[in-house]
Specification:
The chain is an alpha+beta fold and 317 residues long. The protein contains ten helices and 13 strands. The strands form two sheets. The chain has a seven-stranded antiparallel β-sheet. A six-stranded antiparallel β-sheet has the order 2-3-6-11-8-9, with no helix packed on it. Keywords: DNA-binding, Transcription, Transcription regulation.
Length: 317
């Protein structure tokens, strides 16, 4: 279901209410510049979990008050943006904001955002099934969701499934139930949180700080020419140590990790372009993310996503 959504006419601040699976919540929105095309809100899924694609129809700053009973997940599909959680700048393709956490965002004029709202009771109940006992408090997740992580790829898959119309997980109540269970368990398994060790998921802080610095550098500079020495310098360790840490903690190499990040960004671009009908070629997307050999890019892409880049871009047209 798609509908027009207006942040309002003129500049200044205003309150905007967004619907969710458990009611609605107010955001303070400051309109910086309006988009003549207006905004859109498209519901992808409505169950215990809510999933929608939203554009405010303007360049905006949004202040989101802490939600007492839900997690909000944001994946930028088009345009650019900046996000803070509890005052900390988060540089990642997508983020998760937990109950009682304050967040703020800036979205560019042409933005479009995938928003997933999950009731905290649902997350706690799923975690209790894993632990055997209810947790004393809702799990607190690391806010940055790496695009190449299992959950990051799931979010991209959800946005891709909704680009061509009715997603398959809306086919029936049973399909929706299984989809929600899959999403919840994938979240708990692959996104680090303060109960990860107890429920057999990822350690809340995998590897040393140097490794996290290297990963963050790869995310932030994926569109640039990056060498192994660049990553090592950003991590503040030597090249040999960098390679050892990636192999030990992630079972990969630094450049293979960087390639995965670039591949995820290229996939997200192709999905967005397919949804908007933008005039772009696979070659343009590939070279934007550092893939100069188109055949090699197509092979890596098919290996990861099970289809060719061109079928992602042109398949729904």
């Amino acid at each position: 279901m798609s509908s027009r959504f207006e942040a309002g006419s003129g500049g200044g601040r205003r309150q905007v209410r967004h619907p969710g699976p458990r009611g609605s919540w107010a955001h303070a929105v400051e309109v910086i510049a309006e988009n003549p095309a207006g905004g859109r809100r498209r519901e992808l899924y409505e169950g215990d979990i809510g999933i929608r694609v939203l554009s405010y129809g303007a360049e905006v700053r949004v202040t989101v008050p802490p939600s007492p009973d839900s997690y909000q997940i944001y994946l930028l599909l088009r345009g650019t943006g900046k996000v803070q959680v509890e005052g900390e700048r988060i540089d990642a393709p997508s983020i998760i904001v937990g109950p009682h956490e304050k967040s703020g965002m800036w979205w560019s004029l042409d933005h479009e955002v995938l928003i997933v709202q999950i009731p905290s009771a649902l997350v706690e109940r799923t975690l209790a099934d894993r632990l055997g006992d209810p947790p004393e408090r809702p799990p607190r997740f690391r806010p940055a969701i790496i695009g190449d992580s299992t959950f990051g790829r799931l979010l991209t898959m959800v946005s891709s499934a909704g680009a061509g119309g009715r997603p398959p997980f809306m086919a029936s109540p049973s399909a929706g139930h299984h989809f929600e269970r899959f999403l919840l368990h994938t979240l708990l398994d692959s996104q680090p949180h303060d109960h990860s060790a107890a429920c057999g998921g990822i350690d809340p802080a995998p590897g040393p700080a140097a490794l996290r610095r290297a990963q963050r550098y790869c995310e932030e500079h994926a569109a640039e020419s990056v060498s192994l020495r660049d990553i090592a310098a950003a991590a503040r360790i030597g090249v040999r140590t960098l390679q050892h840490e990636f192999r030990r903690h992630l079972d990969t190499t630094p450049l293979a990790y960087l390639r995965g990040v670039r591949l995820a960004h290229a996939h997200a671009d192709l999905v967005r372009m397919a949804g908007t009908g933008a005039q772009v070629t696979v070659t343009e997307v590939a070279t934007r993310w550092g893939f100069m050999h188109l055949g090699r890019f197509a092979g890596l892409y098919r290996e990861r996503y099970g289809r060719s880049p061109s079928s992602t871009l042109y398949g729904s047209r």
